[in-house]
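Form 12-C: Joint structure prediction
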Amino acid sequence: MKEKALKNIKKYYQLYLLLLPSAVLLFCFAYLPMAGIVIAFQNYSPALGIFKSPFVGMKNFIQFFKSYQFTVTIKNTLVISLYSILVGFPLPILLALMCNQMKTKLFKKVFQVITYLPHFISTMVMCGLILIFLSPSSGLFANLFRLFGQEFPNLMSSASGFKHIYVWSDIWQHLGWDSIIYLAALAGIDPTYYEAATVDGASTLQKIKYIDIPMILPTAMVLLIMRAGSILGIGFEKVFLLQNVQNIMSSEIISTYVYKMGMQSMQYSLSTAIGLFNTVVNVIVLLLVNLLAKKLTDSSLF
Amino acid sequence: MELVVRSVEETEVKKKRVFTQDKLVNILFHLIAVIMIIAVIYPLWFVIIASFSNPADVANGKVWLWPNVIDVRGYQKLFEQSQIWKSYWNTIVYTFTGTFVALFVNITAGYAMSRKDLPGRKWINVFYLIPMFVGGGLIPTYLIVKQFGLLDNFLVMIVPFAVSTYNIIVARTFFQNSLPESLWEAAQIDGCSTLRYFVQFAVPLSKAVIAVVGLWTAVGLWNSWFNALIYLQNEDLIPLQLLLRRILIANESLLGAATGTMAQELRQLSDMMKYASIVVSTLPIMALYPFLQKYFNQGVMIGAVKG
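Section 2 - Result
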């Protein structure tokens, strides 16, 4: 057995050599930090280091569960996430179905190129655009409302407006791009299906209903699982950048709280504990959703 | 006889109905598409014209379709800041070197994992997949990076987080599907080693996937700022996106403080600088995108096969 392994290594060392750079980086910057999770169970102090800091068991977790921020951050994370899925999951499908039926090739092409474009704007610039356009005194929306004699509300400083801003600006930016994967699935449909349907006198809407939708259902299921699996993992960047004192009540999510506790308040152990809690919940949700999908529809991630 | 005639008539009527319905649906689809095109293009166009217009007119809603005057003070003031040149240069350096490093680590791994005869392939797969779902989190990662002495070091932007399991899977899928196994077998018989085969055959035959992975990485690096926020304090090292945070989000005036009528003018100037900075930072990607669109789409397709 050992001899065989040794022989394998000799024969295949060049393949392992090719794996080496990425494996070393993953080990150092993905696996070593995982070991660092131990500080979630310590009262870590940088002076003492990871080996000498006192062990405190679940204290940090209990502190988080008991804190006022616990329900607030979880609620906000869930609200934004569910709202995102509710709008962001079906719309790309509808767009792809529509785009697939467009007969004018050139128009379709132009339409695609343009709707994909905003996807490449950086989150930073996107948030800058949101702030500029929504400005109640001089923003584009305010000026547009003024044309019709209306007053534009100050959305950025209202707690209730935050989720709408987050979700709909995401739609603006990524709707076109998110439809690509469905368009690819639709492009794979055998054209004779449509020809047969046309001979039978099917209308465009009937073709969508009886050919297109059943064909993209498996793809849609897999994407839904992936989204549902990251329900507590909405991106940090955009929420963090759009946060301000006035909307903090509905914009403080788990990941921004982890950042504040860790990088601003220097409570390393508490921050790590909250992050770990988040990761564990994420993995459990992903496994559960995957299991459910397997039972219900036969499509699953693994 | 009568029956047949009626049924033929009925089909004709039905066909006509379907035809008009299809026509209406087609018009509706195109209408929605046109509205969407306007909704996407207009805000982008507005940023460009606003960056060239008189700031007071922009604020008062007098600029809609075309700049009423050509006013380049926003760009002037922006380029007078030495920090913008520094940050821009940093971003260019991070993007190019970072893309190179990422291509090197991900394409090599992708090729190795595409080989079915790789011993321990299953476990290696698991090793690469786990970090996709779990991680150490912010603080443990920060502490490790600090341990390696990478705080305030430009290397932190290009090396530690260069591995992307997703891109490795894309590369692996490509190698598996497009490199015929017989090619490797033939090369092997001729005494070609794995490394030589990789450099002389696998890489030159995979320009498409290298382009895809490279472009994705480059866009990601160009737009990234989170790692810089956490790991870089030194002003000389910060990338463009982090400088934009000051201009766009923190609303920090790079022009200094002023009072009275000067304050009003400064506020307007800093508004112009906002528009100008968006144009300057986003233009390279927007200008290149239409030409490279093909490759970006391919990335999604290849990834989707085994996502």
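Section 3 - Comments
DSSP finds 16 helices and no strands in chain A. Chain A touches chain B through 90 residues (CB under 8 Å).
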